[in-house]
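Sample intake sheet
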Amino acid sequence: MKTTSFITLLLLIVVSCSKKTQQQITDPKEYATYLNVTENISLENAQKELEFWSVKLAATPNQYPYLQKIAAANTQLFSITGNIHYLKDAENNLLIVNEKTNYDNAAYLRSLARNYVSQHRFKEALNLLLKAEKNGENLQSTEFQLIDVYLELGNIKKAEHYLSKVKNFESFEYLIRISKFSDAIGNLESAINYLEKALKKIENSNKPELLEWAHTNLGDYYGHAGRLQDSYQSYLKALEINPNNSYAKKGIAWIVFSHEKNPAKSLAILAAIQQETMAPDLHLLKAEIAEYSGNFAEKEQQIKQYFTAVNNQKYGVMYAKYNVLLLVEDKATIKEAIEIAKSEVKERPTAQSYDLLAWAYFKNGDVKKALSIIEKQVIPHTFEPELLFHAVQILKANNQTQEANLILADLKESSFELGPNTAKILTKL
């Protein structure tokens, strides 16, 4: 009996240690140095670039190509700071340079298209790229961007068509597109495989921005695949290249919150991020953490701060998704949410947009209308846990329990992506 008891105790200790090892992915000693960065070299360089070309333009106002350089610096400043004014300034300069060239310079058209993609103005970006395609200058660069935009618009066939035109497994640009395409059709393993190959292509190159981008995107993919240790390491690699990479820090903050269930440490990371960027969606993550901690007053305060931030008209439709998801929670604003969702469907007819509309109808009590949308436009076209989480609830509301339970079984493996608050709801469905 004593031997048996000892073995049982030993097994319990091993299992307990195993759980602790599995639970702890991150190490504050590894990422702490990136939370107290006193200088931002990328920011300083972008500011110097902006000043240099602004002075050049002031000295020679007829040199309109300088506007392109100024726009590039503004775009970089937006990506670093999240300040929407920089992105809109870039747009204004790119509009001028395109007007100067009668919208017949493919490079300028592509630059403005990239700007519109950042603003989620995908149809306008597409129109510009089709003009650039007709122009024919540096055609492959245009075709790569067309793939990006068609994927954003949910037009898989068109994206596949252009992928066949630029097919080259030795090309970094092609590999990252085939990776995005694989992710869009639900083949996450291939998406990871192609992006890993893309990373190898540039590992020994002097292209830190591309390396940084590849590592952060791999971090996302690994997270979706449940490879959290790999995800964490990828974010750390991005931070080694750029200690001010707020996106990588946010990825680590999510691991700390969603997997390790450590709100305090996650909030400490977010506090550091907010010293670097003013991206409004950080308030929503803080609201989610507050809800998990039972601090509902703080949750409401963070949501108010979010709405104050996005109240700036310059954001346009960039935060339409979040706005809908928040507005449907209040009967007083649910009609507004439905109208925003309708606009999203019109401008970007993807499963994500249709999900917003279906969810808004569902929250408004129109469960039949919501069901019709998710059956035709959402479930057959997506593998995203958040969308399927909505679908389960809509199916159950329409007494389609069997179909809902089939999706629910798969969703329970997506608790990391969905977060602890949603995972808790899942257990009750």
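Comment: Confidence is low (pLDDT under 50) at residues 1-22. The CA atoms of residues 385 and 411 lie 6 Å apart.
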